Each structure stands twice: as C-alpha cells, then as structure tokens.
Amino acid sequence: MWKRHSCLRIRPAIYNDKEVFGRERDTFLLPEDITQLAGMEEIGATVVAVYMRYLHDVLKQANMCSMVGFIDPATPSLVLLIVRQREETVYFSGSSARKSCGRAGRKSVIWKTLSGTPKQPSNVECGYYVMRFMRDIIMDPSLAFEKKYAKGNQEAPYPKKQLMKSGMKWAEFVCQIIEQGNY
Predict the structure, then answer these.
(1) Mind listing the pLDDT tens digit for each residue in 109-126?
(2) Domain that holds residue 173
(3) Looking at residue 10, what DSSP letter applies?
(4) What residues does the Ubiquitin-like protease family profile domain cover (predicted)?
(5) CATH number of the domain that 174 lies in?
(6) Which parts of the chain fold into alpha helices (H)?
(7) What total number of domains does the chain contain?
(8) Segments of the chain assigned E as strands
(9) Phi (first) and psi of residue 136, to 5 degrees
(10) Are 33 and 44 in contact (CB under 8 A)?
(11) Closest by alpha carbon to 48, among 9, 79, 7, 83?
C-alpha cells in the first residue's frame, strides 16, 4: 500500500493546535517515518507525535480531552505520564529518572511507577509500545490503568499484530489528512 501511495512523494506538515501539546506546532513527516512504520522498524518521536494527534482527535470526538493530556515527544525523553488531578497523583512509565520539580507553597506530587506494563523485547519496539499504552489507557472508559499495570500484574509482551494495529490507525489518519489536503 505505502509504495504506491502519494504520501512518499510529499512531506506533509501535520498541524497541532494548542490543545494537543500545550502550544501550537507543526509535525513534519518524512518519507522515512512512513517506511519505518510500514516495515516495523524503530520509529522516532515524529511518528509518536502524529499518533498523539490522532488520539487527541479520538478524545475530542468523545468529549474527553480534559481527562488526558499529552507531552510533546520532541522533548528530550519519551515517557508516559498520566496525571490524576483529583488524587494529586502522577503515574510514570519510562526509562528516564524522575525529577522532583517542587515549587514553593505547592503540595508535592505523588509519583507512582507503572511497573506491571508489558516489557518490550528490544529497543525497536519502544515507540510501538508507547503508542499501544496510550491507546489502551484512552480506550478504557474507566481509566483503570493503575490496577491493570500494578506491580505483580505483569502482562506478557504485546504480540506484533497488536502493535501493528496502532500503526494501521496511524497510517489511516495520515492518509486521511493527506487526501483532504489538511497539511
């Protein structure tokens, strides 16, 4: 499908309004982003950012944007943070060390590591796992991820077929934007 598609001959810039990452910005896709995803090769932050934009649109249609926020993957490290404002808790999944960012007069945030997440077999799958975690969390209306990924509830690695489902949704979203000329 991708070899024949016009996506490989253009370099679309996918617009992200302020609601997606907290600031307006374009995400520029390169042909190698598309071929890496299509070949199940290691993907970069650009592919993940476009998937976040897709998930933001899904959340917008369900009127759930206020429940989930995204951190721009163009920042130095890919991590997954889920913030529960009512409980003043931040759930953390990623390889980076946590930093305490306290401000005078503010309560300190409670950090919880999601240690029961499925473990990726190698570095190649990292971006695919991040996309799948985001999808699983958003598609669960109860947002019961803390129980699902709690310590001791270790899940088996995702099968390749499940990881590619996120890739297919990404591809459909990108093709739709390109065909509509919304880039």
Answers:
(1) 677 777 778 888 888 898
(2) 6-96+108-180
(3) S
(4) 105-145
(5) 3.40.395
(6) 18-21, 31-38, 45-61, 126-139, 145-148, 160-180
(7) 1
(8) 13-16, 25-28, 79-84, 89-94, 110-113
(9) -60, -40
(10) yes
(11) 79
Return the structure tokens found at 12: 């679309």
**pLDDT exceeds 50 at position 89:** yes
Residue 82 domain-assigned (yes or no): yes
Q: Is residue 1 part of a domain?
A: no
- CA dist 77 and 51 (Å) reads 17
* Mean pLDDT confidence for 36-51: 93
Does the pLDDT value for residue 99 go beyond 60?
no
Residue type, 132: R
Residue 55 lies in a domain: yes
Looking at residue 114, its pLDDT comes to 76
- For residue 27, count other CB atoms closer than 10 A to its CB: 24
- Does residue 96 have a pLDDT over 50? no
Side chain identity, residue 159 = P
- The amino acid present at 1, given as its one-letter code, is M
- Residue whose pair of structure tokens reads 């970069």 in the numeric block: 44
| Beta strands at 13-16 and 110-113: parallel, antiparallel or unpaired | unpaired
Round to whole Å and give the CA distance between 18 and 131. 21
